[in-house]
Amino acid sequence: MQNEQTPLMQLKDINMHFKKPGLQLGSKNIHVLKDVNLDIYPGEIVAVIGESGCGKTTLGKIITGLFRPTSGEIWFDGKKVSGLFDKKINSYAQIQFIQQDSYAALNPVRTIYQSLYAPIKTMHRKWKKSQIDERIEELMSLIGLQPSEQFLTKYPHQLSGGQRQRILMARAISLDPKLIVADEPVSMIDVSLRLSLLNLMKELNAKLNMSFVYISHDLSTTRYIASSGRVCVMYLGEIVESGNIGDVIQTPRHPYTRALIQAVPIPDPRFKGEGKLPLKSMGVGSLESRTQGCAFEERCLYSCEKCFGSVKYVQTETASVLCNNLEAVPSHPIYKTD
Questions:
Q1: 3-state SS record for 263-303
Q2: What's the pLDDT tens digit per position in 106-146?
Q3: Which of 46, 96, 128, 131 could, after both became Cys, cross-link 177 (CB 3.0–4.6 A)?
Q4: What is the DSSP-derived secondary structure letter of residue 145?
Q5: pLDDT digits (tens, 9 = 90+) for 216-227
Q6: In what order do the strands lie in the sheet with 79-80?
Q7: Burial 86-125 (b: 16+ CB within 10 A, else e)
Q8: CB-based contacts of 128, cutoff 8 Å, min separation 6
């Protein structure tokens, strides 16, 4: 389904190469992202999923301006911002990043108050201390840490993992961003606390109309946070399937997406999977020896001669799928009820 809104952010043909440490002259670099195209709309939640090392975090850092892509264009709010990171850094004040490790993301020698005060003062230099204090109180109320006096004077090591993650959320929204990139924000906290943080993100999305890019390898949290949003499935630096999250999880079309979803068991005896994982090999391909053809070919049960050539996206009724042999891939749901 086409979105009639104007995209808040557009990534066009993004490629990212990293130089391998210790490389000799003439050696190949590591091609981490390949021809990534992504539109993010106002108020939308986009989930990016895939196994470790597929390029999810690199994509998130490119969106937030922490990395410069090797090639490709980035447009934000109707303006081209790629290549302007140094001269127009304020263009990226409306895009914030929530890191995975809340302890490493907060300065250990600064109190929570100081960590929240600094970015607000940087962006609003004319504000008085009373105005900043009022804003911090609003943020603490919004993230549910009350009374605020019990938290603002503490240091990061004196808070729990869930509390630190909420502080990161407050710092991210303190500048009223239009887009927040959350890189596995609940992976390092107790399962019992994950739901409250996911609910907080959904509440901020609904109340403030903020767009979210939720990066994760956990299908259960992804399905919850983006229940009415889109999902992009990544494999070795490419988006292999994207579409409405309900459609993609219920009836995945790309062979990798089918394997990824089937690898997560459903704790309900009424649902029967297909048994063995639909993979030719359990090995993971290499980013260093990337070819023109399909990156998943070595592991795919449905690979054929067509897969060695340039791979094109196919638009189905429910998703956009990067596959040259899609007609051979099953189109029925993976899990069936008895």
A1: CCCCCCCCEECCCCCCCCCCCCCCCCCCCCCCCCHHHCCCC
A2: 999 999 999 999 999 998 989 999 999 999 999 999 888 99
A3: 96
A4: -
A5: 988 888 988 888
A6: 30-40, 9-18, 71-76, 79-80
A7: eeeeebbebbbbbbbebeebbeeeebbbebbbeebeeeee
A8: none
Q: What DSSP character marks residue 128?
A: -
CA distance 238 to 191: 30
Q: What percent of the chain has pLDDT over 90?
A: 55
Q: Are 238 and 322 in contact (CB under 8 A)?
A: yes
Please say whether the beta carbons of 187 and 52 come within 8 A: no
Bridge partners (DSSP) listed for residue 16: 33
Location of structure tokens 């992804």: 222
CA 312 to mean position of chain CA atoms? 23
- With H, G, I as helix, E, B as strand and everything else as coil, classify residue 333: coil
pTM (two decimals): 0.90
DSSP tag of 24? P
- Asked if residues 36 and 72 have their Cβ atoms less than 8 Å apart, the reply is yes
Residue labelled with tokens 């079309």: 253
Residue 257 tokens read as: 């997406």
Pull the structure tokens for residue 214.
């939720």
Domains of the chain: 9-18+29-94+176-268 (3.40.50.300)
Q: Return the H-helix or E-strand segment holding 17.
A: strand 9-18
Q: b/e map of 261-284 (b: 16 or more CB within 10 Å)?
A: bbeeeeeeeeeeeeeeebbeeeee
